[in-house]
Design brief:
alpha+beta, 5-stranded mixed β-sheet, 9 helices, 42% helix
């Protein structure tokens, strides 16, 4: 784009694997004039390198100002057909199924949940979300603002069937309906066991796990404690 408009501003790369090595170089350039952080993935620093650079520039007393670009989570939310007055943005889902299920079990709430996902993990993630959330409404957004932009709206089970019949391609944003206000949260035993395993791997004690999960799962604290001891 710069070449097309004959803009001669110097460029330097800044990405996940070189970002910390570039900090001193960029801070030195800031002493000489303005520097812009530009991303090909929308707004810089939203699921994109930039946080460390912003932090370092502020610590060095430079003025940091935003010029917003497109944001996949916000764009998907606005056209999802789900409530937009509040939402929970959670970035990329964990890679492993056991970690996904533990993570999802901890975050279930009333607001819509926004996740990012890659094509090769999409169906596995949808199946885990179905197991943990139940068959909630979902909007699956793909390649927004690009040539192959697509929005699929329905429920999680329908999304699984659709993307099994059509190979997932591109980058995905998932907008999932939050828990209904009248919905009483009582986890299935399989869901509770998955989360307990996750918490045990994190090094938490039986007392900590039973107290925390009794509040979240709808199970009795003594029942949770007994399950924890069985799984230890």
């Amino acid at each position: 784009m710069l070449a097309h408009f004959e803009i001669k501003t110097p460029l330097t790369s800044y990405f996940e694997h070189n970002k910390l090595n570039k900090l001193d170089f960029i801070l030195e350039k800031l002493t000489q004039g303005d520097v812009a952080l530009v991303s090909d993935a929308g707004t810089p620093a939203i699921n994109d390198p930039g946080y460390e650079l912003v932090q370092a520039a502020l610590a060095a007393s430079f003025d940091v100002r935003p010029v917003p670009g497109p944001s996949a989570p916000i764009s998907a939310l606005t056209v999802s057909g789900l409530p937009t007055d509040s939402f929970l943005y959670l970035g990329y889902l964990p890679h492993k199924s056991s970690e996904r299920r533990g993570f999802v079990g901890e975050v279930s709430g009333f607001a819509p949940h926004l996740f990012l996902e890659t094509p090769h993990r999409l169906i596995d993630s949808l199946e885990d979300l179905l197991a943990m959330f139940g068959n909630r409404r979902i909007c699956v957004a793909r390649e927004m603002t690009k040539m192959y932009e697509e929005f699929w709206r329905g429920d999680i089970h329908g999304a699984i069937e659709y993307f099994k019949s059509k190979e997932p391609r591109g980058e995905f944003t998932l907008v999932i309906e939050g828990k209904k206000k009248e919905e009483r949260t009582v986890w299935a035993e399989a869901q509770l066991i998955e989360v307990i395993k996750h918490e045990l791997q994190a090094g938490k004690s039986a007392k900590e796990i039973s107290a925390e999960l009794a509040r979240k799962s709808g199970w009795n604290k003594k029942e949770v404690y007994a399950l924890v001891n069985q799984l230890k």
